[in-house]
């Protein structure tokens, strides 16, 4: 295989990895709400709105080996990163929790899980969005290196 073919193959694997991360994140959110009975707050719903389409978009792109999808995925994942980070701050910083506009239903400052004292559901979403963003950035770098 040539250097260019190796780079293209690596990018395809990165795309597949991003799809797996999105799939696991979606499965985790459904597990927490449907199996454990945790009612999602308003910010959780927005994070789901950003993550769930990534499963479909990345799945189709991985199947088709469509590396040009990175811009669309980055847009969703970077917005999701910001939203998840804000939600995590709402949970962990009392001053920010007071400014939250999350007033209907479950409070956004509520913590269903707190593994190791810092891993909450928004932290898990933040991790998934950041990893997907990094993988998309890596694919973009690979594409740039291939095209010159």
What report would you give on this structure?
It is a single chain. With 148 residues, the protein is mainly alpha-helical. The chain has one domain (3-98, 108-147). It is built from five helices and no strands. Helix 1 (3-35) runs antiparallel to helix 2 (42-64), helix 1 (3-35) runs antiparallel to helix 5 and helix 3 runs antiparallel to helix 5 (121-147). The longest helix is centred in the N-terminal third of the chain and has 33 residues, at 3-35. The protein is elongated, with a radius of gyration of 17 Å. The model has no long low-confidence stretch (mean pLDDT 93).
How far apart, in Å, are the first and last alpha carbons?
18 Å
Structural class by secondary-structure content: mainly alpha
Our Rg estimate from Cα atoms comes to: 17 Å
Number of helices: 5
Mean pLDDT: 93
Percent range of helical residues: over 70%
Secondary structure tally: strands: 0
SSE string? HHHHH
Number of self-contained structural domains = 1
- Quick one: overall form? elongated
% residues in beta strands: under 5%
Describe the largest sheet. Answer: none
Contiguous uncertain segments of 5+ residues: none
Set down the secondary structure blueprint.
Blueprint (H helix, E strand, L loop, with lengths): L2 H33 L6 H23 L5 H23 L1 H6 L21 H27 L1
Helix pairs in contact: 1-2, 1-5, 2-3, 3-5
Question: Which terms summarize this structure?
Answer:
single chain; 148 residues; mainly alpha
